[in-house]
Amino acid sequence: MNLISTIQDLIRFRTETGNAAEIKKAAEYIKNKFVATEALVEIFQTTASPVIFIRNTQTLDFDALVLGHIDVVPAPDEMFEPVVKGNLMYGRGTLDMKSFAAVALNSMEYVLQNKLPLKFGIILSTDEEKGSLSTESFLEAYPQIRAQVVLDNDVGGDIHEIITKCKNPVFVKLIARGKEAHGSTPWAGIDANEILLQTWQNIRQIYPYYSLEHNEPQNQWVDTVHMAKIEGGQVSNVISNYAEALLDFRLTENSTVENLEKNLQKCLLNGVTYKIVSASTPVVMDENNPLIQSYKQLAEKTINQPLRFVQIGGATDSRAFAVKGSTVIMHSGTGEGIHASGEYVDIESVEQVAAIQIKFLEMLAHK
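User: That's the sequence. What structure does it adopt?
Assistant: Structure tokens below.
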């Protein structure tokens, strides 16, 4: 398998989340790569978007799994034609994360060709950018899936970093119900917009506002919230009787959803309620885990530079395996511009991640 051309092929599929036709084409492209092999390839589909499941074994108890996704956020047409400039490849999905989906396919090919004594699998979702409902459906259908190690390359940015902590994303909808009145007589009504915003200000007393211009915490491993969406009112001269906002909380492992709910209850004005739209669990790995240490040493030898452990505020689909006791190794290549117009990946770093992954799988197979 030519790793770079596979990446370029994947980028050309316009797999924006929800684009079923292009996602189907990409899934078939991946499946066809293993037609002449002994790999078991399933395109799992329920009511959600499909999941591509590739394995070299009938069992669902794996030595190692690679998790990833092939869907991307929307982009203009030109971003679906990869452009190579020097050692950089530009295009939608170069960093997030088609390059590393290709790395996983490359690893599977290596395991098959070399007949490694390793139970190995790949799970690629197709709606990660909008919540990974496909992964949830897949894991509900295969609740017995286990893995000693999960390799998670969906943490792009810097090959010199291994992620050991990810926060718990909790999405909360605030709902305010007021009483309509004419805009000239606000005392005759209850403004849903107003009580929503006053509730928001109460929330800000507990979860401070951070921004590039306003404030940056000394310790960034803290609970945060931002208002992702707000809507209220219909016309200018009517007091709004309904308003809502979607809040995006990111909680560290030291916080709980139960405590968040207690805080929310303290903040609500009369007429305002809330609903937990979704919640998950943080992923927290011990830096001294022997498997993580072995991976780190292999990586450092491969790139001939030291790696450091870091924490991120984002979430990861590997949380479903972390709660089952898997060792999750979160490591990716170098690049910038995730979800932006200038998205790119450093090609050498992708090749290095591919080499590291194969060396690690070799180690697992022969330990």
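The radius of gyration is 23 Å.
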